[in-house]
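The following block was generated as part of the benchmark described in Methods. Ligand: zinc ion.
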Amino acid sequence: MTALDLSALRRAPKVLLHDHLDGGLRPETVLELARDCGYDGLPADTAPALATWFREAADSGSLERYLETFAHTVAVMQTPTGLERVARECAEDLADDGVVYAEVRFAPEQHLEEGLTLDQVVEQVLLGFRAGESAAETRGQRVRVGVLLTAMRHAARSREIAELAVRFRGRGVVGFDIAGAEAGNPPSRHLDAFEYMRNNNAHFTIHAGEAFGLPSIHEAIAFCGTDRLGHGVRITDDITIGDDGVPVLGSLANYVRDKRIPLELCPSSNVQTGAVDALENHPFGLLARLRFRVTVNTDNRLMSDTTMSREMLRLVETFGYGWTDLERYTINAMKSAFIPFDQRLQLIDEVIKPGFAVLVG
Ligand SMILES: O=c1[nH]cnc2c1ncn2[C@H]1C[C@H](O)[C@@H](CO)O1
Ligand SMILES: [Zn+2]
């Protein structure tokens, strides 16, 4: 059995379902792109100082304040070359960390300030991902990146973005999502977008149960018909621990578990936004023990100064997980991906299981 440390974790084949393109830029790239496009609003002028600023500013305990930090990354992702570069580097960084399959999301409507159309924005990002996959391959690494198009939940373009996602299906876009401030912007505001996706047999996930609790999760499932829950961590509000120490599930928690609705859990991000007060108290432990379909995710690598390997290491250190646990969460994620079933199985059988077998020894 290989010792479970960061370098071994980086060799494990990992699957990432919840990662924001505009939350994962390299600090040096933010600086260089800002210089290229004349953006002078950055709060620091060296890469280490900028990295620290993002992590500390995102550590606010409030989702709204956390989201304010994206103004700086979005500002430098307004040109074709900027978008292409950020996507290319994202694929390369994921491959370098041993991620073999990722679904990366971003909101095209936030990248129109310099006159690009929604279609052009998506095209540039897709070009970048293909270039990043090829660059990784020449280094002997492999990664496949699918794109989720996000609509901002406080805005009113979700139907248009859902149509964009369906239009680009088969060209690298695999699904749709809504994100942004959760309180006051319930998923049901965007019913027509979700209906459009369902009518087109297309997949979507919804950020729900992060800053707001059970009503948001209930709407996402019962009204909108979501395939997965972005975070969904507040499902624990529907689980009580009895006097005998035995957890009792309410009807919504039972439904989520019975239907095997995947939870895209993002441990570090949840602590930063205050969804959870400390990693030791993260419901990942309870939800995994109760055999919910839990998956491990980064959310925003820049804001949390993290990677998939580091998120896994934090869970190992907090909950004592071993390789077989991590393999189970990885297979959970692969089963929950939005690519066709046969392709998911192929990755499980040909990449994930053999990769973990080497580490388990
Ligand atoms: O964890 C999150 N919750 C809600 N919204 C988020 C989260 N992380 C990033 N976002 C927002 C900010 C980005 O600009 C947007 C699209 O990626 O999604
Ligand atoms: Zn997110």
